[in-house]
Amino acid sequence: MEITQFSMEEILDPTNIIEGKRYEFILDVEIDEEDELYHEAGIEIRVLIGEKDEEPFILNYFIMEKAEGEYLDFALEDDELEEILTFCKEEIAKA
Fold first, then answer.
1. Residue from 49, 55, 40, 44 nearest 22 by CA
2. What is the distance in angstroms between the CA of the first residue and the CA of the last residue of the chain?
3. Which residues have a Cβ under 8 Å from the Cβ of 72 and sit 6 or more positions away?
4. Using a CB cutoff of 8 Å and minimum separation of 24, what contacts does 49-57 make?
5. How far apart are CA 24 and CA 58, in angstroms?
6. What sign does the CA torsion over 6, 59, 9, 63 have?
7. What pLDDT, in 10s, does the model give residues 75-89?
8. Which of 1, 6, 80, 90 has the fewest CB atoms nearer than 10 Å to its CB?
9. Distance of CA 7 to the CA centre of its chain
């Protein structure tokens, strides 16, 4: 899996109920044709990141097939989640 493009947006909580910060990442990922996640039109992963005490963590993620916008019922492997979290941490640090 390779992240080819992304967008990042801080999710604001006007009620101040949520502790820490929240971010939404939309990741375009390139998947090997042999992988069960592969779709010809491409895959997008929507990741919700929480940050408490300046330590980002994954709250949730959703995998979507780009052509139809359908959510796919797959779980990412631990190493893939770690790769995504590392990427998101680096981008949050730059912001």
1. 49
2. 24
3. 37, 43, 63, 64, 65
4. 49/22, 49/23, 49/24, 49/25, 49/85, 49/88, 49/92, 50/20, 50/21, 50/22, 51/20, 51/21, 51/22, 51/23, 51/92, 52/19, 52/20, 53/20, 56/23, 56/85, 56/88, 56/89, 56/92, 57/85
5. 10
6. positive
7. 999 999 999 999 999
8. 90
9. 10
pTM over 0.85: yes
Distance of CA 81 to the CA centre of its chain: 9
Tokens of 90: 């680096």
pLDDT, tens digit, 9 for 90 and up, residues 32-64? 888 888 888 899 999 999 998 989 999 999 999
